[in-house]
């Protein structure tokens, strides 16, 4: 066969580049279902075009192939600078140190945003950055495969990457139309390659005496071959589409089913983790805030409104890109007649690293945050897609409501939209039902029932204990736990909050549970009439919020000894005009009152301790494996090369040549300045000068090898004139197994001669590979026969 | 005009490496996508499976019509030279013919160029041909050895537009390329008519029995009237006379050992087409060719006999084949080219042996002519036949290769055959020169002695 890599003309190279670009651009379209909007695709196309265009331009300038990939990498950096560097770059193009700082920030944010955003993601700058980098790298890989290695069929691998990703994250996977388009683009690349290859071969005829002369027709219309290509492609794609549609769904994703969303985490089950945190010692300062005297709100991190299954969590909701924090909405269900006042609070987060921002409910404005933050409908939880709370400083305007019991009592029926917040399972344990009936007997209104429930839970029968549920075996969430709790009557905030929420639903009041922090401990520091209040991880808390039409979501405090009982929820409220009586955390003894916690880890982390340990182990293992693979890659490549050569020695066309190549490579590996272009005799002389070849055995083996290769190179060509049968059966130039034997002896002699460091280097960093790579990926050595 | 024909399928359609890889990847993806229920990947998997299969069907169903003309330049090639093979491939289909590669099949022993791209051919232009449907291919073929080689048919491998599948088809027929033995230029000063005219008078005096073959020429002053050829005169309208005088049509006899019967211990019973040539036999053929061509070029009529019975010779070198001087060398060389290296079992030969002596035995005692024997490995019986033939030949030269047994050489020398040993082809010229010098000397001596007697 002919040498594979013939030099291409600029036009042919350009055609391949264009086809590659088309393939990559179409393939990135497959990410469409994952990301909202369409601007990101233009960025990807820009990156792909820039990278591949750079490659094409460099080839047009006849740059050495080995330089093209590094230069393309440079081009990616420049393009990224243009897109993201902004003012940090010199002349918008040349990256500076600041630019890389920006990149680093974006990369970190990208990692977070990938972990935090759910599908479809909002194309925040960090995500765009990740897409741009990914596209640029894919473009380099594709260019390398298509142009340098000239294996366009393998270009499917980089193109497959953006297609596979949607399948991992969403059930439907990439849109079939996009996939068909990608396949068509791939076929186009193959077609272009076939044409380019044929033309290259036609215009680079063999030289030599027996090379054929071909006088081609001057013009040939390619229209009809176009029809054949189109027809074949259409037939194949159509058949594939029909087969795909006709194939029934065999399994329902039983392996990846649980792994769905590993990349874009959705929802969090902090509910159980909260309890685990509360039992940990050592408070960690969470954040502090400056607020007016007496302004002590709870800070909500997230709201749990779905009471289903074992693990209760927030409704899975994608971040809505329109809900930016610049415009906070008015809370649900709040009528104008409810008394309220706005209080500014300035918060500085210390050690909390989550995606949920601690904000009081309700809040009318938030300012000063870094990153992209969005609020959720209803709960007004504020979360980020590319940043974290760590180290943030921001101003919040809190809307302090002071509904009167009359307003609450007079609340109408909840709207139908809140039906979800009333949902209870059919198999609700009887004890919950009966207890609720007993407690709320005689309540005149839902509000009175809620007050009675809170009073009941705060009553003397219930004790606060973070350890009792664990030792009794009913920790966590779920209805069975609540039933158990109602009998044992010992637990902590999670149990009280969920019990009250469930009982409220039983009565007919929409309810949800907020997880966050209580108001914390005031410090002595005062700044201009405001008090600095410190909140630490001991202030982690969960509390129920009940909905009353006209007032909205109203918080209650059923946990004895924790937090503040709102004035409107006290029995007999309305008669006295007292504001909330602080029953602050300081009033409870540390032994049982201060729940311990590590909010950093468990509110942010999606996995529990054991699971995270396992995943960490796995990650470390994978990392170790990758590192090991990287370290041994040269050795593996070299070993594979040796095996290939040995196979050629055993049954190839030029066995002695292969054996000699291997010998030269081994010598080069060991640092002997052997030049593969030299004659065998010169090389043998060079090698035999070494100490190990004083032994007659090794020297004889070397001479055998040398003679064999000389006979093969310069001797009569037994393969040409004679038919192959004779060449094989008659007088083979050199029998294979002695060659291998001799090669082994020479190699071991060479190795014995070298110092151990040199040997190790020969194994792990073989120089011969470097020499082969430096030789370039251009035209191969002249073909034989 | 060659007939347009559908190309014959030579082998089943096959997937290329690319197509095979795509198929394997497709199957792997199919398994994965079914396992994980990924519909998008499922589509790609089916593309990976369907495209190679569609390509297979495409190349199998696509039926290109192509006509091929093949010519050799020169038509007959001497061994060790180059022959140019010219091919004209014309598309006879209504569609453009693209995506093909060609390779000419040649018989073992010759090396055709590697597979190469066949340029795209436009649709067939029935009328007003502009040549866009035709491609001219030309390659040089080295012809190292004497023989008749089949060149063709043309193998055309077509692939689908995406390079996923291919099929090999053949078109046209095989043509024989005759590679004649190498001819060594021999010294013209020896072995010419003049040098051996002493042995030719008998022949010269002989009149030809068939007057029809006589050549008429115009009357010249002095021609006797009885020699006027009236029939020719009537045809030409001027006076013609019979040319009764024979040109000195000298004849020589060439005896070639084509059976190698001396090889008693020949292990190889039959020869296969691809076997390496028997170098001694080839040397013998080369000697015979050089001597024969030399003699023919110098006006001899060459009577060529195999040393053995004609039936035993597979080639067309028949017993007593006579080659005449102008142009005869081509026929002679071609016959030598077609001569196959013998290698038959002995049993076959014994039956023919009886006829041999009889056929070779002298038929007349007319004129003695120069006789040249090329011996490769004759047995004693054949040697005796040569001995018996000796009186009719003057001079009698035997070129022997090294494989001739000493017994045979002794026998021949005893009967006054001049023995010249040739070991290598490049000794032929010098052997010829020395052989004639000695033979002529010997003949002169003998004739001198005869006259003296």
Automatic annotation (TrEMBL), chain A:
SMART domains named in the record: TGc
UniProt xrefs under PANTHER family: PROTEIN-GLUTAMINE GAMMA-GLUTAMYLTRANSFERASE
Region named Disordered: 562-608, 714-733
Pfam families linked to this entry: TgpA_N (PF11992), Transglut_core (PF01841)
Domain Transglutaminase-like: 485-560
Ranges that cross the membrane: 40-61, 73-94, 126-146, 153-170, 176-194, 226-246
Protein name as catalogued: Transglutaminase domain-containing protein
Keywords on record: Membrane, Transmembrane, Transmembrane helix
From TrEMBL, chain B:
InterPro entries to which the protein is assigned, alphabetical: DUF58
Swiss-Prot/TrEMBL keywords: Membrane, Transmembrane, Transmembrane helix
Record's keyword annotation contains Manganese: no
Domain of life: Bacteria
Residue intervals of the DUF58 domain: 216-264
Spans traversing the lipid bilayer: 20-36, 42-61
The protein, known as: DUF58 domain-containing protein
């Amino acid at each position: 066969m002919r040498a594979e890599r013939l030099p291409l003309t600029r036009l042919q190279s350009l055609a391949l580049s264009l086809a590659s670009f088309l393939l990559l651009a179409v393939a990135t379209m497959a990410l469409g279902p994952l990301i909202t909007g369409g601007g990101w695709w233009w960025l990807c196309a820009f990156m792909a075009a820039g990278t591949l265009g750079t490659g094409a331009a460099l080839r047009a300038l006849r740059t050495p192939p080995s330089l093209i990939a590094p230069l393309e990498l440079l081009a990616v950096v420049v393009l990224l600078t243009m897109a993201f560097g902004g003012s940090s770059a010199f002349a918008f193009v040349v990256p500076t140190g600041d630019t890389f700082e920006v990149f680093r920030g974006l990369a970190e944010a990208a990692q977070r945003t990938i972990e935090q955003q759910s599908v479809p993601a909002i194309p925040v700058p960090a995500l765009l950055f990740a897409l741009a980098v990914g596209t640029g790298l894919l473009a380099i890989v594709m260019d390398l495969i298509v142009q340098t290695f000239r294996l366009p069929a393998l270009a499917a691998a980089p193109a497959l990457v953006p297609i596979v990703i949607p399948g991992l994250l969403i059930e439907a996977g990439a849109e079939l139309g996009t996939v068909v388009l990608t396949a068509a683009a791939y076929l186009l690349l193959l077609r272009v390659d076939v044409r380019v290859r044929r033309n290259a071969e036609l215009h680079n005829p063999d030289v030599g005496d027996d090379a054929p002369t071909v006088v081609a027709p001057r013009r040939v219309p390619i229209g009809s071959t176009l029809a054949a290509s189109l027809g074949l492609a259409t037939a194949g794609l159509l058949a594939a589409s029909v087969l795909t549609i006709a194939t029934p769904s065999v399994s329902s994703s039983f392996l990846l089913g649980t792994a769905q969303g590993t990349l874009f985490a959705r929802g969090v089950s902090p509910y159980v983790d909260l309890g685990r945190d509360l039992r940990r010692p050592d408070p960690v300062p969470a954040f502090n805030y400056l607020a007016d005297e007496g302004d002590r709100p709870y800070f909500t991190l997230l709201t749990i409104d779905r009471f289903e299954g074992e693990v209760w969590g927030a409704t899975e909701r994608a971040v809505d890109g329109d809900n930016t924090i610049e415009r906070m909405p008015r809370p649900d269900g709040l009528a104008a007649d409810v008394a309220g006042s706005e209080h500014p609070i300035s918060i500085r987060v210390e050690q909390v690293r989550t995606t949920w921002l601690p904000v009081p409910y309700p809040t009318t404005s938030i300012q000063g945050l870094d990153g992209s933050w969005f609020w959720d409908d209803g709960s007004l939880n504020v979360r980020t897609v590319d940043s974290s709370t760590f180290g943030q400083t921001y101003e919040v305007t809190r809307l302090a409501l002071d509904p009167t019991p009359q307003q609450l009592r007079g609340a109408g029926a909840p709207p139908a939209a809140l039906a979800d917040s009333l949902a209870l399972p059919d198999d609700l344990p009887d004890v919950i039902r009966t207890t609720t009936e007993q407690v709320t007997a005689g309540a005149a209104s839902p509000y009175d029932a809620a007050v009675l429930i809170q009073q009941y839970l705060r009553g003397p029968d219930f004790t606060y204990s973070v350890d009792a549920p664990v030792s009794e075996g009913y920790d966590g969430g779920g209805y069975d736990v609540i039933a158990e709790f109602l009998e044992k009557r010992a637990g902590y905030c999670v149990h009280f909050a969920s019990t009250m929420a469930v009982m409220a639903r039983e009565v007919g009041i929409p309810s949800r549970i907020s997880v966050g922090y209580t108001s914390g401990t005031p410090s002595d520091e005062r700044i201009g009439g405001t008090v600095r209040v410190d909140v630490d991880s001991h202030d982690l808390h969960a509390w129920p919020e009940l909905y009353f039409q006209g007032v909205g979501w109203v918080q209650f405090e059923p946990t004895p000894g924790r937090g503040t009982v709102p004035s409107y929820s006290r029995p007999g409220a309305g008669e006295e005009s007292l504001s909330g009586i602080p029953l602050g955390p300081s009033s409870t003894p540390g032994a049982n009152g201060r729940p311990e916690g590590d909010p950093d880890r468990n509110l942010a982390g999606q996995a529990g301790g054991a699971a995270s340990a396992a995943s960490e182990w796995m990650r470390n293992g994978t990392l170790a494996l990758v590192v090991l693979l990287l370290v041994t890659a040269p050795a593996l490549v070299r070993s594979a090369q040796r095996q290939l050569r040995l196979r050629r020695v055993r049954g190839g066309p030029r066995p002695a040549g292969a054996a000699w190549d291997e010998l030269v490579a081994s010598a080069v590996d060991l640092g002997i300045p052997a030049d593969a272009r030299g004659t065998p005799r010169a090389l043998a002389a060079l090698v035999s000068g070494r100490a190990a070849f004083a032994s007659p055995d090794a020297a004889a083996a070397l001479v055998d090898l040398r003679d064999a290769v000389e006979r093969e190179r310069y001797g009569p060509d037994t393969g040409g004139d004679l038919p192959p049968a004779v060449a094989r059966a008659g007088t083979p130039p050199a029998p294979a197994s002695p060659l291998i034997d001799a090669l082994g002896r020479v190699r071991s002699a060479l190795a014995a001669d070298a110092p151990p460091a040199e040997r190790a280097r020969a194994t792990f960093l073989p120089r011969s590979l470097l020499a082969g790579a430096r030789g370039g990926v251009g035209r191969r050595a002249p073909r034989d026969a | 005009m060659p007939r347009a024909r559908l190309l014959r399928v030579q082998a089943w359609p096959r997937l290329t490496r690319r197509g095979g890889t795509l198929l394997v990847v497709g199957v792997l993806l199919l398994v994965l996508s079914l396992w994980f229920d990924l519909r998008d990947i499922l589509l790609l998997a089916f593309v990976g499976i369907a495209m190679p299969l569609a390509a297979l069907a495409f190349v199998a169903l696509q039926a290109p019509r192509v006509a091929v003309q093949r010519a050799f330049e020169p038509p007959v090639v001497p061994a060790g030279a180059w022959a140019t093979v010219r091919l004209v491939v014309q598309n006879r289909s209504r569609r453009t013919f693209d995506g093909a590669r060609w390779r000419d099949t040649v018989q073992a022993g010759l090396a055709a160029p590697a597979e190469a791209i066949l340029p795209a051919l436009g649709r067939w232009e029935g009328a007003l041909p502009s040549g866009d449907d035709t491609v001219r291919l030309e390659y040089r073929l080295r012809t190292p050895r004497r023989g008749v080689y089949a060149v063709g048919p043309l193998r055309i491998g077509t692939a689908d537009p995406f390079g996923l599948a291919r099929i090999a088809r053949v078109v046209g027929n095989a043509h024989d390329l005759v590679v004649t033995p190498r001819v060594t230029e021999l010294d013209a000063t020896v072995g010419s008519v003049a040098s051996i005219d002493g042995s030719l008078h008998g022949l010269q005096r002989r009149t030809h029995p068939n007057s029809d073959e006589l050549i008429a020429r115009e009357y010249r002053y002095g021609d006797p009237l009885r020699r006027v050829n009236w029939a020719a005169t009537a045809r030409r309208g001027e006076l013609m006379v019979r040319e009764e005088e024979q040109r000195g049509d000298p004849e020589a006899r060439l005896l070639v050992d084509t059976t190698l019967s001396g090889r008693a211990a020949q292990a190889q019973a039959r020869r296969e087409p691809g076997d390496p040539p028997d170098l001694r036999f080839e040397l013998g053929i080369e000697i015979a060719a050089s001597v024969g061509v030399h003699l023919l070029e110098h006006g001899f009529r060459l009577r060529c006999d195999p040393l053995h019975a004609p039936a035993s010779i597979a080639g067309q070198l028949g017993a007593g084949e006579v080659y005449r001087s102008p142009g005869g060398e081509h026929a002679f060389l071609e016959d030598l080219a077609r001569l196959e290296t013998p290698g038959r079992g002995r049993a076959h030969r014994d039956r023919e042996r009886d006829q041999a002596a009889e056929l070779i035995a002298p038929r007349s005692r007319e004129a003695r002519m120069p006789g040249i024997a090329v011996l490769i490995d004759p047995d004693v019986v054949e040697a005796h036949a040569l001995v018996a033939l000796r009186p009719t030949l003057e001079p009698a030269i035997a070129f022997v290769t090294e494989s001739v047994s000493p017994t045979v050489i002794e026998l021949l020398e005893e009967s006054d055959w001049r023995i010249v040993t040739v070991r290598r082809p490049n000794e032929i010229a010098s052997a010829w020169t020395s052989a004639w010098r000695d033979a002529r000397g010997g003949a002169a001596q003998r004739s001198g002695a005869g006259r003296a007697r």
